[in-house]
Amino acid sequence: MMKVSIITATYNSANFLEEAILSVMKQHYNNIEHIIIDGGSTDSTLAIIEKYKDHIAYWKSEPDRGMYDAINKGMKVATGDIIGTLNSDDLLADNKVISSVVKAFQLNKTDTIYGDLVYVKPDNMENIIRVWKGLPYKRSRYNFGWMPAHPTFYFKRNLLQSYGYYENHYYTAADYEFMARYLFHYRVSACYLPLLIVKMRSGGMSNGNIFRRLRANRRDYLAMKINNIPFAFIVSIMKPFRKILQYKKVGAMKMLKPQSMQHETEIPQIIIKRETANAS
Length: 280
What we know:
Blueprint: E1 4-10, H1 17-25, E2 32-38, H2 45-51, E3 58-61, H3 67-77, E4 82-85, E5 91-92, H4 97-108, E6 112-121, E7 124-132, E8 154-156, H5 160-163, H6 174-185, E9 190-201, H7 210-226, H8 232-238, H9 242-255, E10 273-275
Parallel strand pairs: 1-2, 1-4, 2-3, 6-9
Antiparallel strand pairs: 4-8, 5-9, 6-7, 6-8, 9-10
C-alpha cells in the first residue's frame, strides 16, 4: 500500500486548522502521514496541534522564511511514496480523496497527479465562489499561462532528489515555479484526475490589491523565464486572465452538477489524461 505524506504549513492558523486536520483524519485511506510545520505561532495553533498529536506523524514549531520554506522542511522529513500539501485553512473535499489519488497513481503509472478545486467563502465551505476545473494534461498548455491547481498537486517523493524543492525566493510564485520545473522543464509525466480534491477558502498571498497582483505577475514571469517557457512576458500577462473563466463556471454549477464535483467508487480511467516525458 502506497504511503501518502500530507504537509501542512501553519502560522497563527488557529481559526481553521482543526477543520483541516479533521479532513485528513476522516480519510478512508489509512496509510497517511500528516506532517505539520509551524512557523512559531503565538495564537492557539500549537494547542490544536497538541490536541491531535496522536494523529499527526510529525510536527515542529520554529521560525521559518514563509510557507514554502515550511513545506520544504516537511518534505525533508516525509517518508511517503507520494507527497501533497494541504493549506491550514483548507479541507480535503471528502473522505475518499486520498484513496482516489492513490488509485489514480496505480492505474496510470504516472509521476504526478492533479485534480479540481473550488474556492469557498471563508465562513461557509458550501458557498462556492470560484471553480478551478482542471484539464487533461498537455505540456503545451504552459505556453498559454495554464497551471494545475497547486493544492491538488501530488507527486512521487523520489522526484525530489532529481528535481529539487520549492525555491523560496519566488515567494507567491514558488508553487507555479515548482510545478513548471517538474512538468514543463523536466517533462515529468502528469495525469489529470477529474475529481474535486480540495475546498479552498478564498483569499491568498498573490490575490488582493493591484500592487500585490502586479508583484505576483513579475514573479510569475521570472519563474517562466527560468524554466524556458516561450514568450514568458506575454504568457505572464495571459495567466491571470484564465481566472475569469473560473468565476463563470460557478453559474454553470448551479444548473448542472459537474462530474468533478462528485466521487465515484471506481475512478474512470478512460478520461484520466496522462502525458509521458516525450510528449509535447
